[in-house]
Predict the structure of Circularly permuted ATP-grasp type 2 domain-containing protein.
Amino acid sequence: MSRANPSGSFYYDSQSYYDEMFTHDFSVRPHYNSVYSLFAHMPASKLAARQQALHQRMIEEGITFTLYSPNQQEPLERTIPFDYIPRVIPKVEWDLIDRGVRQRIQALNAFVHDIYHGQRMVRDGLIPRKMILSNMYFRPEMVGLEIPANVYITASGIDLIRDENGQYYVLEDNLRTPSGFSYLFKGRTLMSELFHDIYLSSSVQSIERSINCFLSSLRALAPNGKKDPLIVLLTPGSYNAAYYEHTFLAQQMGIHLVEGRDLVYQDHKIYVRDLRGLRQVDVIYRRIDDPYLDPLAFHPDSLLGVPGLMNAYRAGNVAIANAPGTGVADDKAVYAYVPDMIRYYLGEEPVLHNVPTYILARKDEREYALAHLNELVVKETSLSGGYGMLIGPSATSEEIRAFSTAIQRDPSRYIAQTTMKLSRAPVMINGVMSPRHIDLRVFALMGAETHVIPGGLTRVAMKEGSLVVNSSQGGGVKDTWVLNDE
C-alpha cells in the first residue's frame, strides 16, 4: 500500500516502519506541524531555489567529504548530501537521550580506566580477559598510566536508532576519533539562514555554546591545570576524508591545525613550530588513529605522527584527546557488555538499551547466527564506517556463504545483531517528500563536566530502501532540531 496526499507533497509506501513525521494513518505528528506546513505548501520553485542556494553555499564553503571506492582510481571529493527537511525531536524525548548518553559515556570512561589499571571487571568475571588482550585497540603502553582527570573519552559519538515502535536503541559507540561535528554545526548555520522563517518560529534549542564546551573539555586536560594551554588539532593532512572537519573545528575553537611534521619532540615535551619559533604544546586533539601517533611506539613506518610523542605523554607534559587505547571500548564485541558496565561501575540500570547482539566467539550464539544469517546483520568487530558488514535480509546467497566461511574461520572477529527496522524521515526528492531510513549520532564532550550537544547529527540513507547511513557509503545528513518545549 502507498499513499500520496492530495497536494502531492508527500508519497509514502506502507507504514511498516516508525516514521518521524507521520503516524501510521499518515497524520502529522504534533511536533512536526510547522515544519510539515512549510514544506508541504511552499511552491516547488521556491524549494528548488533554496535547495540551489544551499548547495551553492556548501560548494563555496568547501563542506565536503571524500569517498573512497574500490571501483575508483581516484578518491571522489563531493559535497555531503544535505536534506533540508529537519528532523524534529520533542524535549521529552531528548531528555531521555541526554540522560542515557551521559550515563553510557560515564560507564565507558570508567571501563577504559579500569582496563588500564586494576581490571576489576575482568577479575570479577564480567568480561573475558581474552576479549581485552586480543583486542586490536588495546594498548599495553597505557597500562598503569595516569592521565589528566582520568578522562579518556573527551569526544564521543553515540549512534542511536529507533525501531518500528519508536523505541531508541544504541547501535554503536564511536570513541576513538568520531567525525561529523562540522556537519552538525554547518547544517544548523545553513538552515537558520536559508530557512530562517521556520527556524525562528520553532523554538529550537541552540547549539552555539557547544563549540565553547568542546574547547573547555580540551582545556580541562592541560597538564598541571595550566590556565591558558596551547592546544593543537593533529590531522593526517588534506587527503583525509574528514579534512574539512579538521579545518573547521580548529578555526572555530581558535586552536592550531597541525600535521605531524609541524611538531617536535624535545626533552620529553612536544613543541609546535610557528613564526615565533618553538612553542610548547599542552593538549593535542588528535584525528589520527593510535598506530600512526608515534612511530617510535606504534607503527614504525608512520609519517603522520610525532616521534617521541608517547614519551612526552608518559612524562605528563602533554595531553592527548582522545587518549590512546580508548578504542578498547569501541570494539563491537565489547559493545555487548556496556549494559553490564553501567550496572557494575554506576550501580544503575541502562537508560538506553543495546540492539540485541550475538557474540560469535560463543559456540551456541555462533551456531544460531550461522543458521539465521539471512535474518541478521553481521559486523566485523574492528571496522567502522559501514565496512565489513553483511545485511542478511538484503544479501545474496553468495555473500551469505562468504560470511559464513569467514565466521567459521575466525568467529572472534564478528558479531551479529538483530536486524532493526530503522525509523524513517522524509527527504525532499524532486519537490516531493519521500521516506528514507535514518539514525542519530549524538555527540558528548567530557572534561570538567559532560556536555551533550542538543540534537546531534541525523544521518540519512539516501538510497531508497537502504539501511546504510554512513557518509563513507554515500549517506547524507539532516539538521536535527530539539524543541525547547513539549
About this structure: The CA atoms of residues 59 and 79 lie 7 Å apart. The domain at 356-418 is CATH 3.30.1490.270 (Dna Ligase; domain 1).
